[in-house]
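Quick one, T. Sequence first:
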Amino acid sequence: MNPSAPIVCLGEFLWDMLPDGRQPGGAPFNVARHLRQLGQPVQLISRVGDDELGTDLLEQLAAQGLGQELIQRSQTHLTGVVKVTLRHGRTTYKVVEPVAWDYLQHTDELRDTVAGARMLVYGSVAARSLATRETLYRLLQVAPYKVFDVNMRAPHYTRSVVQYLLRQADLVKLNEAELTEIMGWLGQPATPATALPWLAAHFGLQAVCLTRGAAGATLWHGGHLLEQPGFAVAVQDTLGSSDAFLAALLADWPTASPAASLRRACAAAALVATHRGAAPLSETAILDLTG
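Structure tokens:
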């Protein structure tokens, strides 16, 4: 794995319509911008409409120091939006469809970029439509290292697609609800100590990371189970915390020790949760929290 090559994030790039206004979002974009904030070379692959919302999103991309080269423009479908509701500390999402990022087209430029990348980060939401799913499947064939951010949001996934994406992955990140559902499909208990190594063996994964919210995270890697408690912070909202976690985990993966990467990831998630709405990450803030 070439540490100087970019990390490529693929999938939904959209507007989160929050109660107090809109902000750019989509897990792939959030992971990409946090990676950029942590000093990593990164590229985003997505598709937006040839409309005002799409133009505004591209301006937001530039403001984050991210390139627009791999963002396609659609003449036939509108830019994506998600209606976000925050209630009693819980976040719910209504993902509008079909929209531009459902129609991502495979190109030689995308293939060459992914083939030369450090890793490809993808999720299940982008695979909800046939067009983008087929593009993703083709790119997975050339990606040197594949990170599956499971991110199952009903009704935007199917069991068969999720299992296919698991089989393609090298590293998988999922939460407790996703672990329970997937292990239920497979007729296995969801106890992390046994479920994570079982998933790794069953799907041929190098690493499986389970996020546990305020309780921290668990990582199976190299035949070892690592536990990292969460960091006690005053939570404002958890929107984007999972994406910050993944960005911090991947920023120095796999050159740093897995335990160090897991600790940094939990700190990043906690830091983002102390802000309402989008929050920046920095190595300095992470170091301050981790000591």
